[in-house]
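To illustrate the input format used throughout this study, we show a single complete record. The first block contains the structure-token representation of the backbone; no residue identities are included at this stage. The design step must infer an amino acid for every position from geometry alone.
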């Protein structure tokens, strides 16, 4: 085998390894976030787990490192690998949010995500109304147009939805808020996708987005904050309805 061929083979193996590691992390992360493995649970030994999943111990170890980096598990010599309390989880990590909605999400966890949005996004809309420039408004308008053109039933429409919320956060000119854009975008994406599992969206939320845009474009901070508050509140009610609940239960703190 020539040197370039060897390099290509190694790269292919590395790519396969990363995909396997990602698949294992996705499976275990989904089980942890959905409650299959409750906080405090000591997982099976590395040998037993690798055999049960039919994967190598090396691939499992790498996947566990991914979960540990996201605050889901902690490994200690002799004590094994333990699922950490929810307060230790990086719930704003886009992967953790994806895992939360991969199966049947915990209603209290979903409410917690919406409560975060209800705190952050109306304030961000207010700042955006005060600080936006022409480019920010163009980004919001283009995203809104994509949502209308493609509808939220399509990947392109959902991408427009994420872009809309991202443009608002960027228009705040606040780096600490901009950092949240990936997390807010993931929360918007996965809740929208979840609401479409069994049927079409219960109502069209695009007009609610348009009201936020119009208030920001008018430079009306109070109206922008109120429009965003209504948008988030209605999205939470729609999600609760899809879960068969009238109201999502309040989040609780897991014991340490």
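Output of the design step:
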């Amino acid at each position: 085998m020539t040197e370039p061929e060897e390099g290509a083979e190694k790269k292919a193996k590395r790519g396969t390894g990363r995909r396997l590691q990602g698949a294992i992390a996705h499976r275990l992360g989904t089980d942890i976030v959905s409650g299959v493995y409750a906080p405090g649970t000591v997982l099976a030994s590395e040998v037993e787990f690798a055999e049960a999943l039919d994967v190598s111990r090396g691939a499992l170890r790498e996947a566990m490192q991914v979960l540990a980096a996201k605050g889901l598990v902690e490994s200690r010599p002799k004590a094994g690998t333990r699922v950490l309390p929810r307060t230790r989880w990086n719930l704003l990590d886009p992967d953790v949010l994806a895992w939360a909605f991969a199966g049947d999400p915990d209603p209290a966890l979903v409410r917690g995500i919406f409560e975060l949005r209800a705190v952050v996004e109306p304030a961000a809309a207010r700042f955006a109304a005060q600080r936006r420039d022409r480019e920010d408004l163009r980004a919001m308008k283009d995203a809104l147009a994509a949502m209308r053109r493609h509808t939220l039933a399509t990947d392109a429409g959902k991408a427009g939805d994420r872009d809309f919320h991202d443009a608002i956060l960027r228009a705040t000119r606040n780096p600490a808020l901009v950092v949240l854009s990936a997390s807010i975008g993931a929360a918007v994406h996965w809740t929208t996708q979840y609401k479409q599992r069994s049927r079409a969206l219960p109502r069209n939320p695009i007009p609610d987005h348009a009201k936020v845009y119009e208030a920001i474009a008018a430079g009306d901070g109070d109206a922008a904050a109120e429009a965003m508050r209504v948008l988030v509140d209605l999205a939470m009610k729609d999600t609760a309805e899809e879960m068969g609940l009238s109201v999502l239960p309040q989040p609780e703190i897991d014991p340490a």
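Structural context for interpreting the output: The chain is about 65% helix and 5% strand. Residues 34 and 103 are 7 Å apart (CA to CA).
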